[in-house]
Amino acid sequence: MKLSNETFTILKNFASINQSIFVKKGKKLRTMTVMKNLLAEAIVDEDFPRDFAIYDLNQFLNGISLHDSPELDFSNDSYLTIRDGKRKVKYFFADPSVIVSPPDKEIGLPTDDIKFQLEHSQLEKILKAASVYQLPDLAAVGENGVVNLVVRDKKNDTSNEFLIVVGETDKEFTMNFKVENIKIIPGSYDVVISEKLLSRFESKTRPVKYHIALEPDSTFG
After folding, report:
1. What pLDDT score does 221 carry?
2. Do the beta carbons of residue 94 and residue 84 sit within 8 Å?
3. φ and ψ of 169, to 5 deg
4. For residues 133 and 149, what is the distance between their CA atoms, to the nearest angstrom?
5. 123: which DSSP letter?
6. What 8-state DSSP symbol labels residue 95?
7. String of b and e for 49-76 (b: at least 16 CB within 10 Å)?
8. Cα 125 to chain center, whole Å?
9. What is the pLDDT of residues 1-17, one digit of tens each?
10. Four-residue CA torsion sign, 110, 116, 118, 119
11. What DSSP character marks residue 86?
């Protein structure tokens, strides 16, 4: 088996969410933060032939990058063999019990209360502004008929703010995220937020989606 560039990109993103991963047999990859406030899943082209766990996903991916055209062999129960011409690496699997993994059941939103589209350029600007101004909080704010995405420091009344209008609404709300939890692959997303403090960011261009928990001080209505 060879890993596509797309799957490599997805796994690199997943490594930023959790350094470890438990991959189940099939085409679906899933991971979750240790704090269990962000869950990501993707459907990939590869059909993994077995369950296996990787403790240090970044190390694993960096190891694959050492090769020009690596072939992955899953025939052994204890380790993965990476072959490339005359080179061969034996990479041992981790114990799945030491890895924080998502629950088996699918995650769904309890309600669909807020919907908007987030374009690639908007996401890029929001996250760049948060970095430039050192702002820890992201809010989806409904007021005056529009949905704004705002990065700020909600604990500081004189905080700098950066705002982008992303949609329309007839509701009033302030749904708060931590910027550090927006660990999503750059791109355009359909976003749905539930007043029950859970959101879904679903990519428009690749089969990837993220469920991200909101902060308890969020308000709706």
Report:
1. 84
2. no
3. -160, 155
4. 15
5. H
6. P
7. eeebbbeebeebbeebeeeeebebebee
8. 18
9. 999 999 999 999 999 99
10. positive
11. T
Owner of token pair 């090769």: 67
Class of residue 188 by CB neighbours under 10 A (exposed 0-12, middle 13-18, buried 19+): middle
Bridge partners of 66, per DSSP, are: none
- Cβ atoms < 10 Å from Cβ of 132: 11
Collect all residues with Cβ–Cβ distance below 8 Å to 115 and sequence separation of at least 6.
167, 190, 191, 192, 193
Q: Are 176 and 212 in contact (CB under 8 A)?
A: no
| Percent of the chain residues topping a pLDDT of 90 | 95
pLDDT digits (tens, 9 = 90+) for 51-107: 999 999 999 999 999 998 999 999 999 999 999 998 899 999 999 999 999 998 888
pLDDT reported for residue 112:
95
H helices of 18-111, in order, are 57-65
Rounded Cα–Cα distance for residues 175 and 172 (Å): 10
Residue tagged 């008929």 (tokens)? 145
Q: Are 15 and 57 in contact (CB under 8 A)?
A: yes
192 SS3 class? strand
Q: Which DSSP string corresponds to 134-191?
A: T--EEEEEEETTEEEEEEE-TT-TT---EEEEEEE-SS-EEEEEEGGG----SS-EEE
Say what the pLDDT of residue 106 is: 86
N residues, the chain:
221
Give the residue from 165, 171, 117, 122 showing the smallest Cα distance to 145.
171
